[in-house]
Amino acid sequence: MMELRGLPVANSLTEAFKLRINQLKLGGITPKLSVIRIGNNEDDISYERSIIKKFSSLDAVAEVTGLPYDVRQETIEAVIKKMNNDNNVHGILLFRPFPEHLSYEKIKSVINGDKDVDCMSQTNMARLFSGEKNGYPPCTAQAVMEILDYYKVDLAGKKAVIVGRSLVVGKPLGILLLEKNATVTICHSKTKNLPEECRRADILIACAGSANMITREFTNPSQIVIDVGINVEEGRLCGDVKYDDVADYVQAITPVPGGVGTVTTIELLKHTIISAERYNAVVRI
């Protein structure tokens, strides 16, 4: 079994980004991400710390705006509009899910698609599904593709099965895999004979948000397994794949933690850098 760890992927990308950030700084430009957090969810706070740490380590800026859980709709829309109009802000990220009293549809229609670095807006979703290259795919879905590319997994003609159909990972990831000429099947909780569908896959991607749901019966010995899930079970972090049951049986697998999540933050930085380059007409070196 080969373990597909995220750190080598992240390190490889980081080295390339250093050069691009330095080029921006020569023109007096610092890539900046504005993060909006609603409430004080511990997972959100932990994630924002990792974002700030990664950005600051490369002389980029990640700034957090914390809003109360009972924030009014017009208040959050005003905050987003201010960021849209700030030329020093190159990326905007909103932590999800939102409190039930807020309109997700209205919020995603307010964010500027050119600064929407995690594909929340309808503009970027349309760009993704229509095959345009000037948008930003969801960072987690893009992180999966970076891992497959780094480890030289040839996707052309391969059968890829995705377990999970969310707009955050499953559906966008299907589009990205299709662009690499994979044959894609998207499964979900209503899929009949789910273990059998998964066993047929050359590449199995678990992103259903259900702890340890993928066991050995879902896999085959020649399979590459990508675990996108991040769950807490009995006080321990785990994925959607029951790692100890599957790892010694399949060809390759990503661990949790240490897999896809490690690359996701780097993708966020990548999209922010691209946005800064576009906004300031900087030619990549």
From TrEMBL:
Cellular component terms per the entry's GO annotation: cytosol
Sites where the protein binds NADP(+): 164-166, 230
Signal peptide: none
Enzyme nomenclature, EC number: 1.5.1.5, 3.5.4.9
Residue ranges occupied by any Tetrahydrofolate dehydrogenase/cyclohydrolase catalytic domain in the UniProt entry: 4-118
Record InterPro entries: Aminoacid_DH-like_N_sf, NAD(P)-bd_dom_sf, THF_DH/CycHdrlase, THF_DH/CycHdrlase_cat_dom, THF_DH/CycHdrlase_NAD-bd_dom
Functional summary from the UniProt entry: Catalyzes the oxidation of 5,10-methylenetetrahydrofolate to 5,10-methenyltetrahydrofolate and then the hydrolysis of 5,10-methenyltetrahydrofolate to 10-formyltetrahydrofolate.
Subunit comment: Homodimer.
Full protein name: Bifunctional protein FolD
